[in-house]
Amino acid sequence: MGAQVHGVQKFDKEKRQAIQFSEKAMEEIKEIISHYPDGKQKSAVIPVLHIAQAENNGWLSAEVMDKVAELLKIKSIEVFEVASFYSMFNLKPVGKCVLEVCRTSSCWLCGAEDVVRHIEKKLGIKDGETTKDGMFTLKTVECLGSCGTAPMLQCGASYHENLTIEKVDALIDKYRSEGRSRFYTDKDYQNTL
CA torsion 58→62→66→67, rounded to 10°? Predict the structure, then answer.
């Protein structure tokens, strides 16, 4: 990877050499890659990026993306293209819980704007920002595929639909009391209607 990733991150060769995923993560990555024929490992980029992001405290540094490219035997830019396209990947540090509020038509028409404004006021942050304690990041994102149960937000692998201000407050309190990071790779996800 070059010296810089489209002006977003500087690439550090020493940090890259130090990138190691846990044994459990490597087992999962190898299992995912095994589902694709030789030469088609690029098809595993999204699930592998999810694992890499979870291993790196919820975000993808240039060095982590380069490690993913190495594992998949593809060019680093191919990984960056995917990571920078999808809102589920974070190219800068984020809070333990990323509250992704859908901002497309169905959700917006059903009150997502009010949900976003309420979260901003409650947490003292704006869209794209992280709370001072590092617990929450707020992101507005494109369609999360829950139009019939709008408005909704996603935190890690959990979907929270038919939101009201009261439900949002309860979710924030729940996540704060748990105090742990939430990722797309969570196996204990909870979907609420």
Answer: -40
